[in-house]
Specification:
Elements: H1 3-14, H2 18-37, E1 42-44, E2 48-58, E3 61-71, E4 90-97
Antiparallel strand pairs: 1-2, 2-3, 3-4
Helix pairs in contact: 1-2
């Protein structure tokens, strides 16, 4: 998904004008990127919990490898037994964030 598409979706979901959504999305993305570059752990439901696993400077980009954990109950998936346990199981995925 490109940033333009993301802004359009946020504007539609929130009911605000595209220009206002663009300002909010750009500020949010900058803060998220800065926090990850500083190595901070992010706990942002419903996105999930993200932690930096490693960082390196690449040619023309700062490469960040992060782990994103999303609760199955947060995603609306039913857990075995039909009920969400107090500590729900997590799914993990590695993502790579960097400038293109």
């Amino acid at each position: 998904m490109k940033k333009k598409d993301f802004i359009d979706r946020v504007a539609e979901a929130s009911g605000v004008k595209r220009g206002e959504a663009k300002k909010a999305v750009e500020a949010t993305l900058k803060e998220l990127g800065d926090a990850l570059q500083r190595g901070e752990e992010l706990n942002l439901p419903p996105l999930g919990k993200m932690s930096v696993k490693r960082q390196q400077d690449g040619t023309g980009a700062h490469v960040i490898v992060a782990k994103l954990r999303r609760s199955k109950t947060m995603l609306g998936e039913e857990v075995e037994g039909g009920e969400a346990p107090a500590e729900s199981p997590k799914e993990s995925a590695e993502t790579v964030a960097g400038e293109n």
